[in-house]
Structure prediction request, 283 residues.
Amino acid sequence: MHILYYAVNDTAHEPCGLAVHFLEQFMKDTVTSAIKRAGDVLHRIHVKLYPNQLPNGGGPYVARTSSEKVLTIDDICTGMENKGGFSGDKDTLRKYVKQHYDELVYRLCDGFAVNTGYFTLYPNVGGTFFSPKEACDRDKHPLDIRLRPAAALTHLLNLVQLHVQGFADPSGFIHQFSDAESSTVNKEVTGGGQFVITGDKIKIAGKHPDCGVYFELTDEPDKRIKVTRPLGKNKPSEVVGIAPGMIAPKSYRLVIVTQFSGSSTTLLKEPRSIVSPFELAAE
Prediction:
């Protein structure tokens, strides 16, 4: 909990012991909101099966989690208040937690690994180098943050039951959205930045005017922003392009509208829409 000590004592000048107590409760509820043991009753994680795109990858299907939504700090804090027995001041709780994460990110950017008790976050540099004199190239040597589960979290994960809900929509699906500017996956979209979409049957095909890649506002589904620049790559399993100007701060669903049927010679009579199971934040 040293991270929170610095955050509170350097910025807020408030009692460190109380802040640590709040954060310990928050971290415990963050994990138990997804995995909660009450006697022998365990939470389940629901998954759906998708075609396996990897050559020589074993079975023909892979499982992907089927989540209802991405939880925010406010969601976890609300869960602590409603179900976790938290009885302290609600605004103070949110302030301490957000201060903690601000400091945590600052330390990660300085190259520190951070152990939360349930998992360790650490900076990671990808790619390869030919010599110590080679300059770092952000395209060849991307910097990201990795997560390594600790024993406490690993033990809880061993208790989770997986429930296969069946096959995902056979007409196509969006698996992953990678934002080059923020180096994030299924989290953010940067207006004017390059993106890579992977999935199945996502190729943009057909002459219908609605065909294309869209970013749909989650709180206003009737409002969509279309990708207007030519796509750099347009394949059944991968689409690469440049994101349009985004309204920020807002949350979006990725939508692909296409007449692609899976065949290179036959198009669908009417376009179909493929909606991402995840939301993207534009800050």
